[in-house]
Design goal:
With 516 residues, the chain is α/β, with parallel strands linked by helices. It is built from 14 helices and 23 strands. The protein has a seven-stranded mixed β-sheet. It binds xanthosine-5'-monophosphate (XMP).
């Protein structure tokens, strides 16, 4: 793999993703990992990420110079670039001058550079640093500069060591991806082999090796991750897999059918459906506190699932079900201890997920994958696009989008309004521009309206369109007025209980994406 050493900013994951986009497998490791352990992973290259520290700060992570003697190609980025310069005998100065944002860079002889090969001699790069490299280490050639940073990139082809002060992984750096690709292909001479087809083949082989001829179950939530994980396991072991779908009645319009019909048609999977709609409705009766709702839904889900697992065992005969499929993704793995430094806030335990102490061995075929890779795998496995490109949807479902107590009638109202909003966003071609757009029913609020000749006294719904990379932070999406108008007109015309549509224009923070 290409190892991305995490110096504690949010950049390591982004770098790892960009390397994957260049069809090369990458893995994030903490900066505290000893060089010997890194080398034990037989890396084809190492990338040192940016980080929030100054190399002069107390306890700032350093690079062990042994890394540069191992014959492994290394690329240092931002903090990694400075740490590299310092470790190799160059100089890093505290200029007291911050360079932040889009910055014009000069690349006078990019034609002869390995890292900057064939790039325009001037271009905009994204900077975010306080210290600067003032003197490149011996043996390095300086290949770029900016007005504030004379040494903005360097390389030593002899030892395959490279560095850039800017952030090639962010889209604001005009030719950022080319820098990474040049490093991987020409600096480190790695052939691209991380493709969706290979990922599927490799995972199928692994799953077969793990499961053998055992029996396995998978809980489908209607979401992308569990669907793709289930489809992969189905591809690997066929009928040894039974998928369980707990219909808790809190999904959006058409989503239960998507699981029960489209998913089964696409994969041929054996599906065990549990109709738990009434049970969840009873358990949620009269509850309006958000945390209480989440607890109840989590608890009921586990109980229903455990019973379903027993039913599957009974139905399948004497063979114990030994394995459980989980749709854990790589960012979850990194956030729960893979990385270091940066305070990563895990915003939610997977309510609607399963506890760790179930008596199953876990099968996690998506553990190494990022979300976009999961989607690509899903498409290649033939899953319906509507399922693969679905917006994130919370485990507790529509229950946490009804402010107030959940009732079957309120669920119906919200489902109808949500379906209209989704249909219009899709029709306007905006699905891939927004991260998600919760529609929230303010069930305990009423306001006066007028419709036809009559006065109405109905409920508002809130549209909450957000743009985000990872749901940790988000901004409200500036949707075109005509799309908003269409959604508003349709909802107030077609959903009689709703007489007002309002727009949430709060970023996260301070607002969360969901209202509860
Ligand atoms: P918030 O509302 O905290 O949401 O900004 C961040 C992201 O997480 C989703 N979300 C959940 N997902 N179980 C989940 O599986 C939950 O309980 C849950 N609560 C929120 C939310 O839709 C958004 O994408």
């Amino acid at each position: 793999p290409v190892l991305v050493v995490d110096y504690g900013a949010q950049y390591a994951q982004l770098i790892a993703r960009r390397v994957r986009e260049a069809d090369t497998f990458s893995e994030i490791v903490p900066s505290t990992m000893p060089v010997a352990d890194m080398l034990a992973k037989d890396p084809s290259a190492v990338i040192l990420s940016g980080g929030p520290s100054s190399v002069y700060a107390d306890g700032a992570p350093q690079v062990d110079p042994a890394l540069f003697e191992a014959g492994v190609p290394v690329l240092g980025i931002c903090y990694g670039f400075q740490a590299m310069a310092k470790a190799l005998g160059g100089e890093v100065a505290q200029t007291g001058q911050r360079e932040y944002g889009g910055t014009p860079a000069d690349l006078p002889d990019s034609a002869s550079s390995t890292l900057l090969k064939d790039q325009p001699a001037t271009q905009n790069v994204w900077m975010s640093h306080g210290d600067s490299v003032s003197q490149a280490p011996e043996g390095f050639r300086v290949t770029a500069s900016t007005p504030g940073t004379p040494v903005a990139a360097f390389e030593d082809d002899e030892r395959s060591l490279y560095g850039v002060q800017w952030h090639p992984e962010v889209k604001h750096s005009e030719h950022g991806q080319d820098v990474l690709v040049n490093f991987l292909r020409h600096g480190a001479k790695i052939d691209p082999d991380w493709t969706t087809g290979n990922v599927i083949e490799e995972q199928v082989a692994r799953i077969r090796a793990q499961i053998g001829d055992g029996k396995v179950i998978c809980a489908l939530s209607g979401g992308v991750d569990s669907a793709v994980a289930g489809a992969l396991v189905q591809r690997a072991v066929g009928d040894q897999l039974t998928c369980v779908f707990v219909d808790h009645g809190l999904l959006r319009a058409g989503e239960a059918e998507q699981v029960e019909k489209d998913f089964v048609a696409a994969t041929g999977v054996k599906l065990h459906v549990v109709d738990a709609v009434q049970r969840f409705a009873d358990a949620l009766d009269g509850v309006s506190d958000p945390e209480q709702k989440r607890k109840i839904i989590g608890r009921e889900f586990i109980r229903v699932f455990e019973q379903a697992a027993r039913d599957v065992v009974a139905k399948e005969g004497s063979d114990e079900v030994k394995f459980l499929v989980q749709g854990t993704l790589y960012p979850d793995v990194v956030e729960s201890g893979g990385g270091t430094g940066a305070a990563t806030i895990k915003s939610h335990h997977n309510v609607g997920g399963l506890p760790d102490d179930l008596a199953f061995e876990l099968v996690e075929p998506l553990r190494a994958l990022f979300k976009d890779e999961v989607r690509a795998v899903g498409v290649q496995l033939g899953l319906p696009e509507a399922m693969v490109y679905r917006q994130p949807f919370p485990g507790p479902g529509l229950a946490i989008r009804i402010v107030g107590a959940v009732t079957p009638q309120r669920l119906e109202i919200l489902r109808a309004a949500d379906a209209i909003a989704r249909a219009e966003l899709t029709a306007a071609g905006l699905d891939r521009d927004i991260w998600q757009c919760p529609v929230v029913l303010l069930a305990d609020v009423r306001s006066v309206g007028v419709q036809g000749d009559g006065r109405t006294y109905g409920h508002p719904v809130v549209l909450r369109p957000v743009s985000s990379e990872d749901a940790m932070t988000a901004d409200w999406t500036r949707l075109p007025y005509d799309v908003l108008a269409k959604i508003s007109t349709r909802i107030t015309n077609e959903v009689p209980e709703v007489n007002r549509v309002v727009l949430d224009v709060t970023s996260k923070p301070p607002g969360t994406i969901e209202w509860e």
